[in-house]
From TrEMBL, chains A, B, C:
Biological source species: Takifugu rubripes (Japanese pufferfish)
Protein name listed in UniProt: Rh family B glycoprotein
Gene designation per UniProt: rhbg
PANTHER family attached to this UniProt entry: AMMONIUM TRANSPORTER, AMMONIUM TRANSPORTER RH TYPE B
Signal peptide boundaries: 1-21
Domain Ammonium transporter AmtB-like: 68-433
One of the protein's GO biological processes: ammonium homeostasis
Entry-linked InterPro entries: Ammonium/urea_transptr, NH4_transpt_AmtB-like_dom, RhesusRHD
GO molecular function, one term: ammonium channel activity
Family per similarity comment: Belongs to the ammonium transporter (TC 2.A.49) family. Rh subfamily.
Transmembrane segments: 34-52, 72-92, 99-120, 140-159, 166-188, 194-215, 227-247, 267-285, 297-316, 322-343, 364-385, 405-429, 475-493
Entry GO CC: plasma membrane
Localisation: Cell membrane
Keyword list, A-Z: Ammonia transport, Cell membrane, Glycoprotein, Membrane, Signal, Transmembrane, Transmembrane helix, Transport
């Protein structure tokens, strides 16, 4: 009985200090959520209006056929993008064995906040009409895009931040995203429909800087939880596959109607297919025994979509798209294998999901490909379609070479704003008021979530045992057999 | 060896009386399925026809462009609704640890039945053309909507009913749904495109009455299974996220073409986003240590979609939508925390999924919001679009205030039919012929499903051990170490 | 200590010979992937062009409205098909307890390869315009369709083949698929929009022949892994439900615009619903204690989609569709119950996923239904729509009866090419250079994938123990209690 008590105590001691006062969200999270939402509602009330395709009066004031409403051109793409944001990003991050709730749940929270805040910020910078922000399906897609950028940054700090930190990061990042987007798309006339620069490069380097500032020297105390188990990898594959399938919709969602949307989807489709073969090849070659690594498959196979984010709407040709996708897959796996450890050890950048390999480098590659493709654009190839893809080239205000230069400049600006912004926001998030988890409890859901398995109610003890025994009967059986053998050997020896 | 036998026997005794004669579906289920399907086929053969947009001859008889076919206006929305019905509802209910097969599987069965039966019932009440029911993409959406209502009721009785009971419930509920829908939409001219009343309020109060009549005083014998485990909660999040993402398509699926579909999707999008922030805030504030509760996130975050089901197509504005969504999230979490225990303890309503909090109260809220918004409608705001949203107001047969009154009356009628219908159907389901599970085996898949883990074939015993050992090697190792320590201590003590 | 060593050794001996030299993919897989992708890129560079709806210049050269672009008619269906290929097929096969990575991952790899190769092969046979292959959304759907056929064959050999074998199979199967499709659709004028013959029958009998040639007499050495566990069945249900929901899009994806797409979706919807009820009924009646079998639900419920693949676009009527679906469900469950064991024991066809029951027999049924429906076509029923469905009948070059004959002949040709092709490719795959897994390690992910659970790094031992103890605390507790009881009994007896 003494021994029994000892053993049982040892098990239960694990349970203590799970509920640290510092990480208690009882007041912090509700206050943050309510204040943010009330501010959003007030700002929407004073600033936001239906656009003419959404407003009952406006739409019926002008003569249109119903099928000309932008809704029918973009809503299916919008829904695909929406799935990528909530299922794609959410489940991609469930690969961690004890952070599935946090991955899907915090993804859900910050996405729901960001899309509202992005509507305001993007509307403020480039959607004002007579003092009002006009919204419709295109602004919804843009808000989801901006949200995607925040979720990329979330990938870098996954498991090491409190929900309040994440909401705070979202407030700043959405704002800076809108500033950068305004400079690029509105001031410079950059083309970036799929967001290689505005979404991926921006989100990645912003997130990397934040995680750099939030560097935890003792993170290896949570090392054992910073990895996957069998079923968590399968959940993550749900995210991967949805991102992969719907990326053609992502890149084509806000390109011009007609051939442009069609072409962008096609280019992305082939880029991703080529990227996938490169990923499988590279994954096998870089492992010591030729086994495929789920981390590579889950992430690098998507780099092909990132890398044609800028050039996808251009006359890149399927041939060009496949070359770009192929290169993106190779770069991305090499990044996971060789660059990530260096970033962590030398530069102290702890990048949980490896966003540098999936969004950072492929985003930069995509920007460069976009600049080159733009510089090579000719009327011979684009014909009258030039006005859709490069309006400034079509109306003669810049030539193609200069458009290429603008694209390259845009990359530099994006990197600058992302790095600087990330540094500043990182320092803000370091303030000791956000309830960040201790080093010993990173990558652990039970810090912020009720996790039923770990705390069964006392009065159900007996039933719980029975469930376990019925669920794990064979383990139990084996154990018993082992005990028997063991004791038999013991008797034999004595 | 004697001890070994004893221990093994103890394990296996659990297996007995799993296969109760009463719950045996060997004949009952096939007979029910076959008779129902044959009746359906005969009725379809005598009553159902393609509508003019689906029929080869009819469509080509009139002069149309192909893109004017309703298919292109509604099919993407239909598919989103379809995903909500089969993946959304199905996986949302997999949160129970041992009822995943039943959740997805019975959801699948009763949905496949209901959508056929609903086609007939809805067609009979408001789709007859010259003695024939005309069907096309709009009738498919309506059939899925009606199915949704049955699945809401399923949520209340989840885990406590046999498949035959569920099919029987579906037969009656679909019929009453069609009656109620006919009274509201056809007789009174109520507007309810997203079904706050017809789908959510009706399904919820019907289901609550059924579960009230099927009250089990000894349900706590299955209490240990009436909860989630880590991975079952992740599966449920798949359902939640799909419902959340596609709710804009749900509410806009059968609104008028053009600005109406566009506006409804937009309103729902912002309502849901606001609802999500309210849910996270309320979940943290109502828990004793500030931890988020998966039950709230999985359910209450969706209340915003329910609550704009009626008013979503109206000129509610994003501002109005967000206020409604925000309120719905708060009400829903409070319902889970404070009202559900009261319903169970005082009113003896055992509501497995908490449908009162997700569909009941938010549905009523949505009906009220719809009535108020309708009463406030002016030509100044709606312009020529009034004819789409409120045809009776546009043609002058009622004024806006009266339309509001009709909306309010419709809520009362819906509640009346749902409660009365649920009571009667509950008594029908109480007949002791349906093979309902005993109190000790509720929330348990192995009653109606082959569950491989629990009954490995005898001749594979050795292999099974090996799999378990290889899958759970570390548990085994630890156990052995513990044994060693244990015996060592034992020897030391003796 | 001696005993401890013994026990530990026994556990770890399992780990040896996991990394067999023969199955090592370190060089084979990268070389295969890279060479294939480079060949694809070169061929795309020399042969492939945007079609006129995707090309910026071509589209703007002719006068069109943007909404007339085929993109808006087919892209939503394309995305649904894409989900079926990657999520549907991928997750359907995750039912195996230890082959989830291989199911989703190899599905991903061979699909990404096949869709590129299919673009070329199908383009070569029936998409050449002036020496160039023209591509757009329709060719993307066709490439996905061809990929589907390869994935059906993959289902037969699942768990028993290396990725190189699968890629090799895909190379040949895609080629033969394109040949068969060319003979049917282009030479004979067969109608098969949903691919009952070209996709399902072809893929099934091809795969069955391949697995026949690859027969493993000692496969029962891996028998214990050739089954499902609780959560793997839930993952598989994700695949099932997506296939089920999106099958209306699959069958209607490449039918003519307007009423044809509309009608095909409708027919498939009702066929699947009827099939589902038949499946549940048959599953209960064929099991000895009336319990539903997940294998049937996951597979047979889909047979209704396969069986209306040919006739879905015709004037089959919902009545006809439901009869076909009902029959398909019955046939499919009977196949699983009675035919599959015979195929395995007598004909030595080891069909892992039972593709003969889901794709083989229902595909043949679909072809027959198509032939009969075609033979019965009259202008009275089709009107001007005859030109869309049966152009050869409309222009008088064949009569309806002859069209029916052509359909029946096409089934025979498809079966011939599939069986012969499968035999030859089976022998190719038997060459001992592909790194096929040994009989003892079939259905096992760790042969080709890094599986974290099974090989934790040594230095994390202690942490790993802690995770396990915290995750499986109650198992541990029970074990300890048992030990205590055990030792107590032991003491008592001695």
């Amino acid at each position: 009985s003494f021994v029994l008590t000892l053993v049982l105590k040892w098990f239960f001691c694990l349970e203590s200090n799970m509920t640290d006062a510092a990480t208690n969200m009882r007041l912090k999270l509700p206050i943050t959520c309510f204040i943010l939402e009330i501010i959003l509602i007030i700002l929407f009330g004073t600033l936001v209006q239906y656009d003419y395709e959404t407003d009952a009066k406006e739409w019926h004031n002008t003569s249109h056929q119903d099928y000309e409403n932008d809704f029918y051109f973009r809503y299916p793409s919008f829904q695909d993008v929406h799935v990528m944001i909530f299922v794609g990003f959410g489940f991609l991050m469930t690969f961690l064995q004890r952070y599935g709730f946090g991955s899907v749940g915090f993804n859900f929270l910050i996405a729901a906040f960001s899309l509202q805040w992005a509507t305001l910020m993007q509307g403020f910078f480039h959607g004002m009409h007579g003092g009002k922000i006009h919204i419709g399906v295109e602004s919804m897609i843009n808000a989801d895009f901006c949200t995607g950028s925040v979720l990329i940054s979330f990938g870098a700090v996954l498991g090491k931040t409190s929900p309040i930190q994440l909401l705070t990061m979202a407030i700043f990042e959405v704002t800076l995203f809108a500033v950068n987007e305004f400079i690029l798309l509105s001031l410079l006339g950059t083309k970036d429909a799929g967001g290689s620069m505005t979404i991926h490069t921006f989100g990645a380097y912003f997130g990397l800087m934040v995680t750099r500032i939030l560097y935890r020297p003792n993170l290896d105390k949570s090392k054992h939880r910073n990895s996957s188990v069998y079923h968590s990898d399968l959940f993550a594959m749900i995210g991967t596959v949805y991102l992969w399938m719907f990326w053609p919709s992502f890149n084509s969602a806000i390109t011009a109607h007609g051939d442009d949307q069609h072409r962008t989807a096609l280019n992305t489709y082939y880029s991703l297919a080529a990227c996938t073969l490169a990923t499988y090849g590279m994954s096998a070659i870089t492992s010591h025994d030729g086994k495929l690594d789920m981390v590579h498959i889950q992430n690098a196979a998507l780099a092909g979509g990132v890398a044609v984010g800028t050039a996808g709407e251009m006359m890149l040709t399927p041939f060009g798209s496949m070359i770009v996708g192929f290169m993106a897959g190779i770069i991305s796996v090499l990044g996971f294998k060789f660059l990530s450890p260096i970033l962590e050890d030398k530069l102290k950048i702890q990048d949980t999901c490896g966003i540098h390999n999936l969004h950072g480098m492929p985003g930069v590659l995509g920007a460069i490909v976009g600049a080159v493709t733009a510089a090579l654009a000719t009327t011979d190839v684009y014909g009258q379609g030039m006005a859709d893809v490069f309006p400034a080239v079509a109306d003669g205000s810049v030539n193609a070479t200069k458009q290429g230069g603008i694209q390259a400049l845009s990359l530099a600006i994006t990197l600058g704003i992302a790095v600087l912004g990330g540094l500043i926001v990182g320092f803000v998030l370091k303030l000791p008021v956000f309830g960040t988890p201790p080093d010993t409890l990173c990558f652990e859901d039970s810090v912020y979530w009720e996790v039923s398995l770990m705390r069964p109610e006392r009065d159900h003890r007996v039933q719980v045992h029975f469930i376990y025994i019925s669920n794990h009967k064979h383990v139990c059986e084996i154990m018993c057999n082992i005990c028997v053998i063991y004791v038999a050997v013991f008797i034999f020896l004595t």
